[in-house]
């Protein structure tokens, strides 16, 4: 991305946090500015927390589906094994 494109990009809380991280040695003495920075960081953490919550729920749903499919396959395998055993007994007589 060019500098001109970066300048046109709308300012979001993520952009502001990244901008503040680029100048870590800057001293902030205005309480309003400190409060704004803290609130931006809290918003950033909350958005990451929300993303993580969604990812964990998706992973749990996927795990449930896998367990269900595995149980179904195990049931089918047991039925086939029983059928094979019955066929072997019938063929052996």
Give the low-pLDDT segments.
1-11
Which radius of gyration do the C-alpha atoms yield?
29 Å
Q: For the terminal residues, how far apart are their CA atoms? A: 79 Å
How many beta-strand runs?
Answer: 0
Helicity level: over 70%
So how many helices?
3
The structure class reads mainly alpha
- Note the overall shape: rod-shaped
What is the mean predicted local confidence, pLDDT? 82
The H-and-E topology, N to C, reads as HHH
Largest sheet: none
Give the DSSP E fraction (strand runs of 2 or more residues): under 5%
Characterization of the model:
With 93 residues, this protein is mainly α. Helix content is 84%, strand content 0%. The chain is built from three helices and no strands. It has helices at residues 3-8, 13-22, 31-92. Helix 2 crosses helix 3. Residues 1-11 have low confidence and may be disordered.
Task: Give the key terms.
93 residues, mainly alpha, 3 helices, 84% helix, rod-shaped
Give me a quick take on this structure:
The protein has three helices and no strands. The chain is an all-alpha fold.
How is the secondary structure organized here?
Elements lengths: L2 H6 L4 H10 L8 H62 L1
Helix pairs in contact: 2-3
């Amino acid at each position: 991305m060019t500098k001109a494109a970066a300048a046109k990009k709308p300012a979001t809380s993520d952009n502001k946090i990244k901008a503040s991280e680029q100048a870590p040695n800057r001293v902030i003495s205005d309480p309003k500015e400190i409060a704004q920075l803290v609130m931006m960081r809290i918003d950033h953490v909350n958005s990451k927390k929300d993303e993580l919550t969604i990812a964990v729920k998706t992973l749990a749903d996927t795990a449930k589906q896998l367990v269900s499919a595995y149980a179904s396959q195990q049931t089918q395998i047991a039925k086939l094994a029983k059928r094979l055993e019955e066929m072997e007994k019938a063929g052996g007589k």
